[in-house]
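Hey, can you fold this one?
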Amino acid sequence: MSAAAVPALAPPRRAWATDLPVLAVAVVWGASYLAAKGITTAHTVVAVLVLRFAIVLPVLVAIGWRRLRALTGAQWRGAGLLGLVLSGIFLLETYGVVHTSATNAGLIISLTMIFTPLAEAAVTRVRPSAGFVAAAGLSVAGVVLLTQGGGFTSPSGGDLLMLLAALARTVHVLAMARIKAVRDADSLSLTTVQLGAAVAVFAVLAAAPGTGASPWSAAADFGVRAWAGLVFLSVFCTLFAFFVQMWSVRRTSPSRVSLLLGTEPLWAAAVGISLGGERLGLLGAAGAVLVLAGTAWGRRGAVRE
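Sure. Predicted structure:
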């Protein structure tokens, strides 16, 4: 049994109560590609990350101050470690998106669906079910078709960064489930410490020479639309997303969480079509069906070690 295990015969209503918030995270993360591309350049990556995280951090500290003080030293260290991993994920993803196409980024990051059950199996020494692996493979095949409407370009340095980001996401999901100190701690407090650790990393990088624009100069150049995008990235794609992920991974398996989050490219395509004027095409529509079918299949057969 893993740290994130729940009873194998959990009522369907309880399973959906856990799955739906995770699916909502996949939706907002899918929308984050368009939002991030609208406000970020290679020169402003670190500055935007500082602003993105710093917007919500004071609010979290104010709301959860008493619960933060109740955390033990081990819980602070565990959450801080998760925050360091989180900072790496965002640096890799943001630089990756800037230096590759959104099509490639969506396809490559979805490989987390495969990496997580394989890594979880290696850690727990429990082989994932054949049905789950097949469902994940079906979802990845769907992502391939889904992204062909934009055309898969030749691999680039940005593609490598997105691949590393997918690996880092896997590490983050597994670490949340396996670090004993954070198992029973308050989810809001753990999210706050994680974001605080990430902001500290970004602030240090922003102060270093050669890392691009400062957060203040980047903020001064933002218009109303850019600020709206930043607030969306901060509140929904950061605060809401990682609070839900921390909450859910301790109530189900990391593989199940990862599979649901793997629908992210589907929502990215939906946002691109509805707001960005992109065309899905016949192959893309077939891919969307495969992603949904693979995810639904995998939900029923997800390993609960």
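Residues 168 and 259 are 15 Å apart (CA to CA). Let me know if you want another pass with a different chain boundary.
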